[in-house]
Amino acid sequence: YLNYFQKILLKAAPIMSAVYTLFLSIIILSYLGYYLDKKMQTFPIIFLLSLIFGLFLGFYQLIKITNAKKK
Hints:
mainly alpha
């Protein structure tokens, strides 16, 4: 039998996954953009583009997971 805390964790798992996806997509893509900008000496062009793409990708995944949970 699941106790109360385990039930809460089971309900929260999809949201926690979406938040981790949001966080990691922003961090990884921003770092990649920063690295490429430093290598090509184009700072901050690629960094900003990859940051914006990471934000859109992360929020898309967050919305996708939360909408799937509602159905």
